[in-house]
Amino acid sequence: MLYPELYTQLEKARWNMEADIPWDTFDGSLLSDEQAQTIKMNAITEWSALPATEMFLRDNRHDSDFSAFMSVWFYEEQKHALALMEYLRRFRPEYCPTEAELHAVRFEFDPAPPLETLMLHFCGEVRLTQWYRCASEWHTEPVIKAIYKHLSQDEARHGGCYLKYMKKAIVQHGDVARAAFAKIGLLMASSGRSAKPLHPTNLHVNEALFPNDTIQSRLPDPDWLEAWLTQQIRFDEPWEARVVGGILRNLSNLFEQPLETILQLNRYRKALAASVKETHVLPDPAI
Ligand SMILES: [Fe+2]
Ligand SMILES: [Fe+2]
């Protein structure tokens, strides 16, 4: 069981909202309205850990270890939303999300294969680590810079925790787990090539609610993410390369396979998919 060690590890790294954020260094001349608006959107996006947790708990009833870890993950993600909201409450209260705006991102996600969801969130944490690092550099106001730095470090730790559950899944499920991780890893690492970088918050998760079934589509400004990435924090190719590099490096270690390019990952995924199909082939009822 991983929960006890992960609890201890995250407890040691925990930062305190009151003591570890340098609130008294705030400089209002270094915060624009445009920046405050992006903080609001990030706060609501963080709040979506609530429906994600509901999904994780529903789809992992068979796994009490992972479900217990959700208590820590959920707490830390809601703390992220709260830290951003506390910043706005103190310094730009007119940008603070309303309870209705927060509640709008809570909706039922369709059931999904738990191993794929795990990998999706691992990649999401890797990506968010870099988005927040980049946001911390873009902002000039010292308090929000410090907040994004804390958030980025937390996201990196979350990625590390998910990776441990992925290792455990490989011990338990072998190639079935490897195939699920390679499939989603390929999807998430390739997304920089398309116009839309994939993250759990911009994936469609409820067929019946389409097209309003992504977290991003339910924000007060559904288009903010793209503008934030391309025009504001400028998450350009070198940043994207860190995300892809992070995913490939970790998968390489996990699979004990040299995977330096997306192409190599795709080849490995195809070989795995074929072997999983072969070993799980059902007897033909006609024979
Ligand atoms: Fe977060
Ligand atoms: Fe996270």
Protein architecture, described:
The protein is mostly helical. It has a single domain (3-15, 31-278), classed as Orthogonal Bundle (Ribonucleotide Reductase, subunit A), CATH 1.10.620.20. 66% of the residues lie in helices and 0% in strands. It has 11 helices and no strands. Helix 3 (49-59) runs antiparallel to helix 4 (64-91) and helix 6 (114-138) runs antiparallel to helix 7 (142-173). It is globular. The N and C termini lie far apart (43 Å). The protein binds fe (ii) ion (2 copies). One fe (ii) ion is lined by residues 77, 125, 155, 158.
What are the key terms here?
binds fe (ii) ion, disordered C terminus, mainly alpha, Ribonucleotide Reductase, subunit A, 0% strand
In short:
This is Ferritin-like domain-containing protein. This protein is an all-alpha fold.
Secondary-structure content class: mainly alpha
Instruction: Determine the number of helices (DSSP H or I, runs of at least 4 residues).
Output: 11
For the record, the CATH class is: Mainly Alpha
* Radius of gyration over C-alpha positions, nearest whole angstrom: 20 Å
User: Could you say how many structural domains there are in total?
Assistant: 1
Q: What's the architecture in CATH terms?
A: Orthogonal Bundle
CATH superfamily: Ribonucleotide Reductase, subunit A
Shape label: globular
* CATH topology call: Ribonucleotide Reductase, subunit A
In terms of per-residue confidence, which ranges show pLDDT below 50 for 5 or more consecutive residues? 281-287
Based on DSSP secondary structure assignment, what is the total number of beta strands? 0
Elements, N to C (H/E): HHHHHHHHHHH
Organism: Craterilacuibacter sinensis
InterPro entries: Ferritin-like_SF, RNR-like
GO molecular function: oxidoreductase activity
Protein name: Ferritin-like domain-containing protein
